[in-house]
Amino acid sequence: MSTLEIDRVRKTYGNLEVLKEVSISIGTGDFLVLLGPSGCGKSTLLSMIAGLENISDGEVRIAGKVVNELSPKDRDIAMVFQSYALYPTMTVRQNIEFGMKIRGVPPAQRDKAARSAADLLQITHLLDRKPSQLSGGQRQRVAMGRAIVRQPKLFLFDEPLSNLDAKLRVDMRTEIKRLHARLGTTIVYVTHDQIEAMTLATRVAVMKGGVVQQLDDPQTVYDRPGNVYVAKFVGSPSMNIIPGRIEVEGTTATAIVDVANRPAARIPGIGLSSQAASTYANRKVLIGIRPELFSVGNGQAQGAISVDVDVVEPTGPDTLAVFQLGGVEVTARLPPKQVNARSSATLAVDTSKVVLFDQDSEELIN
Amino acid sequence: MNAAKSFSSRLAGWLPRIVVAPSLLIVIVTVYLFILWTGVISFTSSKFVPVYDFAGLEQFIRLWATPRWHTAVANLFIFSALFLMLSTGIGLLMAILLDQNIRAEGFLRAVYLYPMALSFIVTGTAWKWIMNPGLGIQKVVNELGWTSFTFDWITDPKMAIYTVVIAGVWQSSGFAMAIFLAGLRGIDNSVIKAAQIEGASLPLIYRQIIIPMLRPAMLSVIVLLSYIAIKSFDLVLALTNGGPGSATELPSTFMFSATFRRNQMGVGAASAIMMLMTVAAIIIPYLYSELRERNNG
Amino acid sequence: MANALSQQKPTVESISRQNRIRIGRLFIYGPLAVMAVLYLMPLWVMVVTSLKPLDEIYGGSFIGLPQTVTLDAWRSAWSQACIGTECTGLRPYFVNSLLMVIPAVVLSTGIGAINGYILTKWRFPGANFVFGLLLFGCFLPYQAILIPMARTLGLLGLAGSIPGLVFVHVAYGICFTTLFFRNYFVSLPDELTKAAMVDGAGFFRIFWSVILPTSIPIIVVSCIWQFTQIWNDFLFGVSFTSGGNSPITVALNNIVNVTTGRKQYNVDMAAAMIAAIPTLLVYIVAGRYFVRGLTAGAVKG
Predict the structure, then answer these.
(1) What is residue A187's predicted lDDT score, i.e. its pLDDT?
(2) Where are the domains of chain C?
(3) Fewest CB within a 10 Å sphere: which of B55, C27, C49, C222?
(4) How far apart are CA A56 and CA A47, in angstroms?
(5) What is the mean pLDDT of chain B?
(6) According to the model, what pLDDT value does residue A145 have?
């Protein structure tokens, strides 16, 4: 069993409150990603789990045991750092064995553990090299090897891929995912890269200003973001947030959005809870539409909207079309070569996945 | 069990402070307490040994009434001003020349800097011999045919302080060079390229762009050289021994001879406090700005 | 495009440009060479003078090569010259300086290393203030502490002794060595210490196994700086020791300032060379590190 419970944890430096009552709890084998921009408190939270920072208030429990007062070495954790933090004067083998040496593990056993970790990460041929002789990806593997040999209850990763170039980052991402599948250890992983969060996590905690904005599985975070901030942070290009208003019929809403120089566009068939339906009928809302929900439609279909495409940006598999809708710039992800810049186009919207946000609180409307 | 653990973890928390404490104690005593102590002595009538009475400003009044001290202060101004200007100027020039992608840079740099590795006593001894009017440079030039040439500054009370300047500049301009060179190497090359593309000539680029960018290095050089100038002691002692007469007396040599040779400990302490205040006026703002920038950066 | 342009206008301009560069180079190498000669001249004079017999010094040119090379002056400076009333040469004082400099360098470097480690990797409230206190010690005009230090050494029974000088040099050396190590350790990533903590290493273990092995360059810088400073020191030596316990700089000054009889300039120069050789050797062998020590307190970054 290796659960992690973060219970109303706060972190203050003097008067500055970096974390405000954060509560997260995950089960054995979960892969939790703390996602957010720099300064959101995610790294501080990770350091507190590791025992490298004091906990100002609240409790952290690992496998049910309160660890607030324990030093890092007694928490049964292992950590991989952004800069890898390999000991520069030691060989790869010595790096991996250092922790075991301190714990007094006999040499034969240390050697065996180091070998099997090296095998797992395919760095056996590097064991006698110094970190300065390794490439970025190899260093990353060594850092993971150092963590693996501890056989901890909890792996902590602090932006482990952000020092790698784009290609390597994708490869290592897969590697980490494979490792998680194989070892089944609980992982807490900090990143500002939403793609890493989407691809790796079983649970994502989106953070901003020391507060967890949403804690969910990645698909839910993507499909039904808890608020406008999460909606814009997750996904690239980010979700279009269009001011408009809704007309309600039963539990189905029709969004009405102004279009410059044209009649207002009507997007029907948005599902709502009955309570929300009565609260928001005929009110102004923010309409959230992911770029891929647009498709090239035909003029006759219901809910088709006509727009003047401003710019097209081919990305290869898709083309991004940019146009004005409801007074804001909107991006649609379309198949290539279907629309042209500075011409009009008719687009359809997959309304089953359109979400609505409260105009004032910017919270998701269920 | 739990109590023991928390005790040991509390100890671990205090360990860094405990380990640094002895050093801190030594520095607090030998720097700050000793300064205070010297300050106290400067307000007493101490002569051969410290006595702890209160004599008010008597020693300071006596200090400023001593012609020798006036000579020392005047000399310090002359010496510092020339020493600073020449060392900075020569150091900057050499640094710029060395930065032109030249051959043998390493060798030349080593040549300019080796005097810094010497004791001022060695420097003083060597220059005393070189500037010896009977046997040194004067004689060499005379023998080359320029028989009316005289270079007897070292025995001329009016000129002797300039011999200290010469030896000081010889020893320290390499230091200025090293700092300027480090500063030049830190300047982004693309700035120079950008200026070249705009058609600026090399001298113009140096005057308008590079030298202004060396301001932090310039500040360091000036502050550190001022500090060297104020504490200059061994150089004068070895080169002229404060003479002829008291012509090359500096505050540092004055303090030493008042305290240890002339049994005027109170006056010596007062002069030391004057020196300290001069150094502090230069160094503290400098350290403050250096530390603050470092914290921001 | 740029290539095409530069190829369009050949010969005349490029030749004159080359000439200009050559003349420009002359203005660079000329002053540098002149300065190099001026800087080497005193060393040259010291060496040739120390190798000449006394008659040649009073008769010949001081800058020329010796006609007869003799090591008599060196021999005399090393083992016969009179310092005060003792005619032992510099040898015992050279030994004094060694006995002073070795423990002082080792102690001040070791203490500076651990201070720098604490002030960067185990920062506590007020750590910056502590650093500021130490830093000012680097710029202390030592005249301001001479009298109290003399009294204190007397009270401790260390007056006039080599251990006393070691204490003084360690006390004021800590300021410099702490500065060196702190500035070096600041650039080591904090994650290194954190990783070692997660691995279970404690305060001393991290220092010994992780931090120190990465610090060889700065240890060399610190040792060289301290060696040069302490070897070359004169003020503390002349203030706190007398007679047979003096360091070599004090003895050298005494030899040179002897005024009786015919001045033995060759012995003076040989003595100066003997006093200079250890630091010059260090400079020649490890000049790179020496320069780093010089500029450590000066230029940021």
Answers:
(1) 95
(2) 1-48, 91-296
(3) C27
(4) 13
(5) 86
(6) 92
Please say which residue of A202, A233, A264 terminates a domain. Answer: A233
In the block, residue with structure tokens 């002339």: B262
CATH number at residue A101: 3.40.50.300
| pLDDT (tens digit per residue) in B34-87 | 999 999 999 998 888 888 888 889 899 999 999 999 999 999 999 999 999 999
Do the beta carbons of residue A98 and residue C209 sit within 8 Å?
yes
CA distance A189 to A43: 9
Q: What is the per-residue pLDDT for C20?
A: 65
* C236 alpha-carbon distance from chain centroid: 16
- For residue A129, the enclosing domain spans 4-233
Chains touching B (3+ CB pairs < 8 Å): A, C
CA angle B85, C137, C175 (to 5 degrees): 110
Q: Which domains does chain B have, with CATH numbers?
A: 68-296 (1.10.3720.10)
Which residues of chain C, if any, have pLDDT below 50? Answer: 1-10, 299-301
B9 touches chain A (CB under 8 A): yes
**In what helix (H) or strand (E) does residue A241 lie, and over which residues does it extend?**
strand A240-249
The tokens of B59 are what? Answer: 């020693």
Pick the residue from chain C with its C-alpha nearest to B99: C28
Q: Which of C192, C198, C214 sits opposite A77 (nearest CB)?
A: C198
Window 233-252 of B: residues touching C by CB (8 A cutoff) are 233-234, 237-238, 241, 251-252
A38 near B CB under 8 A: no
Residues 6+ apart with CB under 8 A from C95: none
CATH code, A278: 2.40.50.140
Task: List the helix and strand counts (H, then E) for chain C.
Answer: 14, 0
pLDDT, tens digit (0-9, with 9 covering 90-100), for B278-293: 989 988 888 887 777 6
Predicted local confidence at residue A23, as pLDDT:
94
Kind and range of the H or E run holding A312: strand A305-314
Residues of chain A with pLDDT under 50: none
**Beta strand residue intervals within chain C, DSSP E:** none
Are A168 and A83 contained in the same domain?
A: yes
Same domain, A317 and A344: yes
Q: CA-CA distance, A42 to A122, in Å (whole number)?
A: 31
Least confident of B1-15, B83-97, C238-252: B1-15
Residues A183, A251, single domain; the answer is no
**A127 in Cβ contact with A91 (< 8 Å):** yes
Looking at residue C7, its pLDDT comes to 42
pLDDT digits (tens, 9 = 90+) for A110-154: 999 999 999 988 999 999 999 999 998 899 999 999 999 988 999
Cis omega before residue A218 (within 30°)?
no
Find how far residue B1's CA is from the centre of its chain. Answer: 58
Shared-domain flag, residues A204 and A277: no
Q: For residue B173, which of B88, B110, B239, B76 has the smallest C-alpha distance?
A: B88
* Pair A6, A23: CB distance under 8 Å: yes
Last residue of a domain, one of A186, A202, A233: A233
Report whether C210 contacts C201 (CB < 8 A): yes
Question: Which residues, 6+ apart, have CB-to-CB distance to C18 below 8 Å?
Answer: none
Q: Are residues A39 and A167 in the same domain?
A: yes
Based on the fold, state whether residues A90 and A108 are members of the same structural domain: yes
What's chain A's Rg over C-alpha atoms?
25
Residues A31, A135: one domain? Answer: yes
Q: From chain C, pick out residues whose CB is under 8 angstroms from the CB of B37.
A: 147-148, 151
- Total domains, chain A: 2
**Banded model confidence at residue B270, pLDDT cuts 50, 70, 90:** very high
A280 and A339 share one domain: yes
Interface test with A, best of C199, C203, C208 (most A CBs within 10 A): C199
Which of chain A's residues have a Cβ under 8 Å away from the Cβ of C199? 73, 98-99, 102, 146
Q: Are B166 and B127 in contact (CB under 8 A)?
A: yes
